[in-house]
Specification:
The chain is α/β, with parallel strands linked by helices. The chain has two domains: 3-160, HUPs (Rossmann fold, 3-Layer(aba) Sandwich); 204-250, no CATH class. It contains eight helices and twelve strands. The chain has helices at residues 13-24, 43-52, 64-78, 90-108, 123-134, 143-147, 151-160, 236-250, and strands spanning 3-8, 27-35, 57-62, 81-82, 86-87, 112-114, 139-141, 174-178, 181-185, 219-222, 225-229, 232-233. The strands form four sheets. A five-stranded parallel sheet has the order 3-2-1-6-7, with helices on both faces.
Length: 255
């Protein structure tokens, strides 16, 4: 009988080739797509893609409200910055993602949780520390860290296992996004003397491309949290999304 495994699934090539790789190790894979406010991603398509590349089950969870209320709100109230200067974005979502994966693992009787972190950076530590904290008896698989393929080897494996390969040139950047922000790394940014090119940005527009007349919004606070926008009461999630719309309008993007 196959062991059941729960995989944090984002839809990219790396994590997609991880599914047949995990199947070859003997796991029945349940892919979990968590909506924490990523912009511009068709999460229903990603959910379906997991099944296409070999997952036994695929689950899409909307966790935006919980993320905003339980994770973003304390950061706003405390004006929290990592080492007093770096905004907390990606790190905020990791405990919630693992909380949901562990809950699903318990529900379906899975023995293992898998994540898509590489062998460098803090994400592998965040994921695995959270897994051990929620349930130290769960095993951990980190396929992208473990198979250590070159890009050519990964593409060949994808082709052999009928995993769709993105058409065209991929972004040189590694980008992680949630409702609270967007983290950009890799590519030319590995050298701190290089600035990010304009294509890396989505939440802001270049000064040259913005209107000459400023837009103003009024945010009302109670007990350190936003409660209304331009006098209209609304949830924290809605306020964050509507404030983002101000910058998206500069790019003629729908909210």
């Amino acid at each position: 009988m196959q062991e059941k495994l729960v995989l944090a699934y984002s839809g990219g090539l790396d994590i997609s080739v991880a599914i047949p790789w995990l199947k070859e190790k003997g796991y029945a894979v349940t892919a979990v797509v968590l909506d924490v406010g990523q912009h511009g991603k068709d999460l229903y398509f990603i959910k379906a893609k997991a099944l296409q590349v070999g997952a036994e089950t695929s689950i899409l969870l909307d966790a935006k409200e919980e993320f905003a209320t339980d994770y973003v709100a304390p950061v706003i109230q405390g004006n929290l910055l990592y080492e007093s200067e770096y905004p907390l974005v990606s790190a905020l979502s990791r405990p919630l993602i693992i909380k949901k994966l562990v809950k699903i693992a318990h529900k379906i009787g899975a023995t293992t949780i898998a994540h898509g972190s590489t062998g460098h950076g803090n994400d592998q530590v965040r994921f695995e520390a959270a897994i051990h904290a929620f349930d130290p008896n769960l095993k951990i698989e980190a396929p992208i860290r473990d198979f250590q393929w070159s890009r050519e080897e990964e593409i060949a494996y994808a082709d052999a296992h009928h995993v769709p390969i993105p058409v065209g040139e991929e972004s040189p950047y590694s980008i992680d996004e949630n409702i609270w922000g967007r983290a950009i790394e890799a590519g030319i940014l590995e050298n701190p003397w290089h600035e990010a090119t304009e294509e890396a940005y989505e939440l802001t527009a270049a000064i040259a491309d913005t209107p000459d007349t400023a837009d103003f919004v009024t945010i009302s606070f109670e007990a350190g949290l936003p409660v209304a926008l331009d006098g209209e009461a609304m949830s924290l999630t809605t306020i964050i999304e509507k404030v983002k719309c101000v910058s998206w309008h500069a790019r003629n993007w729908p909210c």
